[in-house]
Structures are given as C-alpha cells and as structure tokens.
C-alpha cells in the first residue's frame, strides 16, 4: 500500500505556481564559465550545487555541502594525489571527495583507526556538456538510481562559434509564472514599448500554426509579423520557428537564406519563488557584428520590463486570486500545465511521456 500511495502522490497535479519538476535536465552554466580546476556554486531548485571541472577537463556536479560540518565544498579547491586522482578538498577539515561524490580522504584519521571512508558520499548529480552549455539532472528521489532516461535538448542554429551575446536576470517569480510570461503572445505591445518593436497602435489579428515537439510544442516556421520591425535588419526573407520544451526552454530559430540566428532562453528555478532567466544568442549573420551593442541594450530592456511586470504582478498574487485563462491567447499557458501533468503521471507510472498537444492554429491580436 505504501508504494501505491507514493505513486498517487507523485502523479498528483502540482497547483499552478507551486512545486518544481524533477527528473529533468536544467540549464546551469555556459561551459566557458567552468574553468579547469575551478569550483562554482549555484542554487538550483532550492539545492546548493557545486559545478566543477577537473584539470583534466571533466565536468562534475556535487551537492555543495560537506557531510562533516556542512561547509560549502565550493569554497575549497581541486587537489590531485597519485593514489586518489583529482578530488575536491573541503576548506574546513580537508576531507576530500572524488568527482562521483565518494569520500577519498579524511586527514584527521590516524593510521591505526579503521574507518570505511568510502561509505561517506556527497550527492553527485548527473551532468552533461552539450553545445557549449552545462546541464544538471535533478532527480525526484536522490536515493534512487541517478542515471537519466533521456538526454538534454539539442538546439538548432548553434552556429558562428561561441555565443554572440549572453544576458541574465533573476525574477522574483515561481517557475510557472516565468514560463507563462515568456510564452504569452499578447503582453508585448503593453510591456515592451520600444520604437523598434510593436505597440498597441500597430496591433492586428494573427493566426499561427502550432505543432507538438519533444516534451513541448512549436509555433511552426513562418514569416515574422509585419509589425515586428526588429526582423527587418536581417534583410532577405527571414523565417522563424519558436519552440518551448519542458522543463523550461524557449528558443527562436531564424533562417535568412543560409544564415541563422538562435535566441535561446533558459529558465532555471533558484527556489520556489525565484527564477533565473538566461538569454543566449548565436548567429553567423554578418549584421550581428554591427548591431551587437543595440541587441544587448534591447535584451536588457526586455528583461527589465518583464522583471518590473513580475514585481507588479506579485502585488496581486500575494492574495492568491483565481486566474482566468482565455482561448486562444492563453492556450500556450494551458499547454504548459498539461505538459507538467503528463510529465508527473508518466514518471509515476514508469511509462513513456505522451505529448498531449495536438496540431492546431491559434488566433489572437497583438
């Protein structure tokens, strides 16, 4: 019965604005930010996570708490011993841990003290490097087998070498509200008021085709709206596809002839009430060399405007009001909640994820 109750609890839908998805790959950092021999501290889903790289180049992730006296291991250093290989040394008492979390040395032990130090372990998180990004797998049950059953997403349009632009901001918002704000097609004319973007005076009806994608959906490739002036600097006939994928990735892939632009937004929960937004741009289009300062200013302006609106929205959310979702403008918000429910049910039932989204056309004004 205990197992049955556990499965029921795991499959129970999370109320909107509560809970965070586990058994998922979350974006943590750029590969370039994790130098050889470095230890970097992050907070992800309320967990202190150390992401490090050995001098040999191996990336690893550990719970950033020494099990001896709770000192952050990230405040220590990477050391190498002929018998141990490269390890993380705690700054408090010098306990050392291998990249897989197994204790390698307790310096205070004397030679006649028989202690099985390998029984001591720090939680190790699966970690992957892909396309210059570092992803960490946060399991629902840290006691269970940690091996992920799928790989992190691969994004189209990672071209032109390293990222051309990276911007970050922390929002005082639950992950759910951050996602819905990111995918909302109707707030732009009111929140993002720049001369080079659309305004409420240029709003018109739109119809966009949508289709399911792995763990998410896409606004299928189309010509940008005529009132989106920013696309015009690319020249030619740009075609764009905008995709969302669980647990928190949204990307826009633009093709202009043989040239490409990828604008990737990664949402990473820091805690239940704080979400980190990371925007990363790649491109092999020549115009990026000219407009990078303007693009950076625009990205910062967008993030700040969204952040200001989140703070304003929090004034109302403090009273836990019922929220009204309308079709078609809020359909993507509904899809996100459906995807979360199916994710929880499929994990609880130990079965493959079945995407509940069907191809359709949505219409709204913006």
Structure characterization notes:
20% of the residues lie in helices and 33% in strands. It has helices at residues 2-11, 175-183, 188-191, 288-317, 331-349, and strands at 24-30, 39-44, 47-53, 59-63, 77-81, 85-89, 96-97, 103-105, 124-125, 127-130, 133-138, 165-171, 205-213, 216-222, 239-245, 249-256, 259-271, 274-283, 360-365. Helix 1 (2-11) packs antiparallel against helix 5 (331-349). The strands form four sheets. The protein has an eight-stranded antiparallel sheet with strand order 12-18-17-16-15-14-13-19, covered by helices on one side. It has a four-stranded antiparallel sheet with strand order 2-3-4-9, with no helix packed on it. The chain has a four-stranded antiparallel sheet with strand order 5-6-7-8, with no helix packed on it. Strand 7 (96-97) and strand 8 form a beta hairpin. By secondary structure, the protein is of the alpha+beta class. Residues 1-8 have low confidence and may be disordered. It contains five helices and 19 strands.
């Amino acid at each position: 019965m205990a197992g049955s109750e556990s499965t029921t609890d795991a499959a129970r839908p999370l109320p909107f604005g509560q809970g965070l998805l586990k058994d998922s790959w979350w974006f943590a950092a750029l590969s370039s930010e994790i130098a050889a021999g470095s230890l970097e501290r992050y907070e992800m889903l309320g967990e202190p996570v150390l992401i490090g790289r050995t001098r040999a180049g191996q990336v690893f992730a550990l719970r950033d708490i020494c099990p001896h006296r709770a000192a952050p291991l990230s405040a220590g250093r990477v050391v190498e011993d002929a018998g141990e290989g490269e390890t993380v040394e705690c700054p408090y008492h010098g306990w050392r841990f291998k990249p897989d979390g197994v204790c390698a040395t307790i310096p205070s032990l004397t030679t006649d003290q028989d202690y099985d130090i390998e029984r001591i372990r720090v939680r190790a998180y699966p970690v992957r490097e892909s396309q210059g990004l570092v992803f960490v797998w946060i399991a629902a049950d840290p006691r269970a087998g940690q091996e992920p059953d799928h790989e992190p997403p691969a994004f189209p349009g990672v071209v032109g070498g390293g990222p051309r632009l990276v911007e970050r901001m922390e929002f005082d918002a639950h992950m759910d509200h951050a996602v819905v704000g990111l995918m909302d097609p109707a707030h732009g004319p009111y929140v993002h008021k720049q001369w080079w973007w659309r305004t409420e005076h240029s709003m018109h009806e739109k119809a966009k085709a949508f289709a399911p994608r792995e763990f998410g959906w896409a606004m299928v490739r189309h010509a940008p709206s005529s009132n989106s002036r920013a696309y015009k600097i690319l020249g030619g006939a740009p075609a764009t596809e905008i995709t969302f994928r669980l647990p928190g990735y949204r990307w826009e892939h633009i093709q202009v002839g043989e040239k490409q632009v990828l604008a990737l937004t990664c949402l990473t929960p820091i805690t239940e009430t704080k979400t980190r937004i990371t925007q990363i741009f790649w491109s092999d289009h020549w115009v990026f060399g000219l407009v990078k300062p303007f693009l950076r200013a625009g990205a910062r302006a967008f993030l700040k405007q969204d952040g200001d609106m989140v703070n304003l929205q929090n004034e109302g959310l403090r009273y836990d009001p019922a929220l009204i979702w309308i079709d078609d403008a809020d359909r993507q918000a509904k899809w996100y909640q459906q995807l979360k429910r199916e994710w929880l049910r499929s994990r609880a039932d130990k079965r493959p994820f079945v995407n509940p989204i069907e191809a359709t056309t949505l219409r709204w004004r913006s």
